[in-house]
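Input sequence (147 aa), recorded before submission:
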Amino acid sequence: MTSQLLPSRTVTRSTDETIALGRALAETLRAGDVVLLVGPMGAGKTYFAKGVVAGMGASDEDDVASPAYDIVHQFPGRETVHHYDLFRLQTLSGDDVEWLMESLMEPGVHVLEWGDRLDGVLRKPHTRVTITAGEGDERIIAIEAAA
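Predicted structure, token format:
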């Protein structure tokens, strides 16, 4: 995982810029990488995920939607991208954690919206992308590698 090549803090001013930053992160991702997307409702997590999926050559960004009801969508590309949305899993049960840890062992890149739900249980190196609202359409995006 070489996400440290990207700026640790970026301000985007449109959804297109947020998608472009996701595409830039995708260039650094390899099989087995895990990306946790963290931020409040409407912060831009799905737009960032659209960029990652498109940047991996897995799908056109317009074909990527939040998998809120399915929990996970898969997109074959240079690496399969597993795009999760953990919003509906407000509290993770032991079965949820077991399923997620097994899923994260599947080949490919794993992008998890509401990834902070794995705080304290994810024992795998990952990239944490925290998105917060700025003024107007601005999004403040912090990218950090975590052990």
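Checked by second reader. Residues 3-146 form a domain with the Rossmann fold fold (CATH 3.40.50.300).
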